Structures are given as structure tokens and as C-alpha cells.
Amino acid sequence: MLRNPLVRWGIGLWGAAIVAGVAYFYLSGTVQLVAYGIAALDAIVTPLILKQSVKE
After folding, report:
1. FRET partner for 44 with CA separation of 20 to 30 A, picked from 7, 19, 26, 33?
2. In sequence order, which residues have a C-beta less than 8 Å from that of residue 39 and are 6 or more positions away?
């Protein structure tokens, strides 16, 4: 299932959406901006890590 790129990117984007939603509704100020950065990093890094795990 993880061989499909749509699944890998979907998992990354779903996690990023959850982090961004929590940041939007529950955080404010600098902490909110840091959470948005973590969400962006999650959206990019998670699919790449999952791709590496499929290769091995």
C-alpha cells in the first residue's frame, strides 16, 4: 500500500492538516507560527521517509 505515491503524500498532508488545524484553533502568536512550520515540514518529510521505508 505504501508503494503508491498518492498514499504516502496523503498521509503526510493529512498529518500536516491536523497540526495546522490545532495551531489555528488552539494556539496563537509565535507558537502558532512554529506549529505551521512543523506542519509544512511534516507534509514534506513524511512521504520521503515512507518512500525510504518501502525501498528497504
Report:
1. 26
2. 15, 16, 17, 19, 20, 23
User: What SS3 state is found at 1?
Assistant: coil
User: Taking the model in full, what pTM does it have?
Assistant: 0.88
Q: Is the dihedral of CA 43, 48, 49, 53 positive or negative?
A: positive
CA distance 11 to 3: 13
| Residue listed under C-alpha cell 512521504 | 47
Summarised one tens digit per residue, pLDDT across range 8-55 is: 999 999 999 999 999 999 999 999 999 999 999 999 999 999 999 998
